[in-house]
Amino acid sequence: MEVGWSWYSVDTGDVVDAQEDPELPTSLWREAVVSKLGILEAVMLINGTVQRRTPEGWRDIGTIQLAAEGGEAAFAASVAAQPSQPRQYLLGAARDFGAYAVDVVRADATEPKAFPPAADLMAPEGVTPPKSEAELAAWVLRQCLARETSALVHITADGSAPVPLFAHPFADVTANGVWLDPSSEVPEAVMVEDLRPKVYALTSANAELLQSLSRGLPAKVLLGAVSLSTEGMEPMIVERHGERWLCYFSHPALSEAVVLPAFKKADSKSTVDWLGDRVLPARGGALNGAAATLQPQVESHRLRVGSSDVPVYLILPPGGAAALTVRLHEGPNQRDRWGADGMDAWLISRGYGVLKVNFRGSAGFGRRWRTGRTGSGDVAEEGGADDLTQLLMGRQSSTDGVVAVKEHEEAEGFLDDIAAAVRWALEERKVLGGIPAPGSLPPVAVLGSYFGGYAALHAAHRLKDLIACAVAVAPVQRPPAGSWWPESYVPDAATRASAASLRSGAEAGGIDPAREVFEPAAMAKELREAALMLVEFERDGPDAQGDLMESLAPLGCDPEEWPTSVQYVQYAGEGRGGGMVKQSMLDMYRRLDGFLYRHLSPLAAATDGRSLLHESFVEEGPFISASLLPAMRGGMSASAKNIELGFEQGLRTSYGDQVAASLPQLRSAAGGFGEGKESGKAGKRKALLAPSNRIAVRQDGTIEVTVVFAEEPEGLHVLLSEVWVHLRSKGMGFTLALPRQPKKGQAIRAFRLPSGRGFVFEIAGESSIGAIENYNGWAASSGRATVISMLKPEDLSRAPVMVPATIVLDA
Questions:
Q1: What's the predicted TM-score (pTM) here?
Q2: What domains lie within the chain, and their CATH numbers?
Q3: Quick one: which of 224, 218, 290, 268 has its CA closest to 247?
Q4: pLDDT tens digit string along 208-224?
Q5: Geometric angle at alpha carbon 529, from 523 and 533, rounded to 5°
Q6: Which SUPFAM superfamilies does this chain map to (predicted)?
Q7: Are residues 325 and 445 in contact, defined by beta-carbon separation less than 8 angstroms?
Q8: Which of 97, 100, 85 lies closest to 165 in space, CA to CA?
């Protein structure tokens, strides 16, 4: 059902007289400002135009350039992806019938009225902020113009250029970082996240309040069961609910804010009383203090790459790192922040250092950096205002997000930033204790999801001398918007040159002529030789679905041709980001743990005596819709054991004790399967958890399971239930949740591989009923496993031989 809404107003007390405003129909609204008295004061339309209420009626007072980017089509796409849009640009109504907003500083703007002091600015190498306040104001303006950073601006009613009230030379001002005085509705402070978050007061009253918030903190606060010292914590944002406040603080070790409740008396200008010492679980706040207990060493740096500067973060274990993981955020249009999160804590607890790179395309450091176009404050330093204006006015763009790069811009990409950051960490910062020997492969892994996964694939292909292995979770495989790959997806100069050549003479629209240099599937030949862990989610968006895995190992190909260092898993029923099924997410992190250790531990042995840690693999019985996985050993969770024992009991019920007794035992002590009434309740299971295997679902719903053994299996049985399929041979027990509901009355079909060490099993499935729906339906109806089909060794001995396809890759 489509729901519409409208704004009605009335001059009398009778709501019957209320009428929809004929001048500004709500179908055009994007953001609105309502005063504390409930009066609609200002509206920003979907094209970025700001309309202000005046005594004479609505007045057009200008356009917010950031909001106008991409036009109405970009806004419609944004709403489709996220129907509930946060406030981004229009902040408040000024008393002069203007408005307060967040926007880029314009070339004809005056110098900002407020800005950070020079001591707070972490300038890149070779850039020195002036010391005098007058010179600093002009310098900040030039930096803002060159980088196109967003600022807090006052849009005046007279049509002149918006006045910058606060601007930062390197970082963007955002709407959620602006504090509005609740009584005057005027901006009173600005929080900016450059390399570290910092709040700047715009009024003397707010300066006193900030001092009170920092000065009155308890010495320690409780985050769950963790006691955190408040030393070094600084206020970021305050949410006011009358006299009760939620105060967000940055922590020296944590990436998420520490949120504390407080009581603020109405008659007190600055005194705040804290309500206990327990951190609240709030949106955007820290949920656990695991990272703080590990005492990570957190650093921030601004690296020089060509004439640009790249913000990076480094997080190291207290005793130093044995290997380095490069975490790439999900951008573009996102960013990494100061501090360690839960994933960082998980990595440093195992001995890994973590490097986070805000490569070009990242948000928070100006529009030029966010859109993937290069250029820094140096342009303004060298060329002056007139040259800079020409630079800005000479920019070319198109509505599909593809930016034509001018000759004066650097021909680089996000991969240049990542490579430079890794080399800096290894050779200058020496995070592994020394400089790697020439020609040796350093113990470095790159991992990321979505755009970060896309970047990880390009790194695995193009940075083979720096990257030992890569983890790509739901990597972008198709253009995220429009039909051509945007500028922010260009990895390096070579790709940019190839794309320009392929696109030469082509008109924007339709299939991108340069897709072969962007799409991960086009790199399949090179990625087959890489150490790669690829993860997908079955119900993810179209941009994270593609032909990469089919290109790496086409369905039906000979297992002898499977890429030996690639493992792939697609989790059933999971949407964007996963996390719906607990055992599936546990499975992903346990596979990640083993993958990193297997590929980095041998290389880390030479890093100053430091070593890596990992946990033994535990089978959780995840829901997997597709996979290509190596043989695994380890333990079993309680739920996985119950599934296996359920098969044993189900076989007794369906086929009797005599047939059940023919199954090979998996437990080394008395009480193993087939030894009486108490079978399975004693003894320790000692068996291979899974052979090398591949799982796939064809378009008609047929489930294809390929298993390959190190040697021909002895006593192999295959058991099928409503939800799982179980393979059992001497020394091996493998259980798989079916990715589709099996069709009733259909038997398992088996085919032997030519090597004699493997089989392909086909199970007819319902194409429209996935793993999660199948499991829920079964659990609601009976919840008891029954064996509906079985293949015994004599059946498998008569299985026909399947001739696999041969992989043919373009030269």
A1: 0.89
A2: 23-172 (no CATH), 295-364+400-615 (3.40.50.1820), 626-671+685-797 (2.60.40.790)
A3: 218
A4: 999 889 888 899 999 98
A5: 80
A6: alpha/beta-Hydrolases
A7: yes
A8: 100
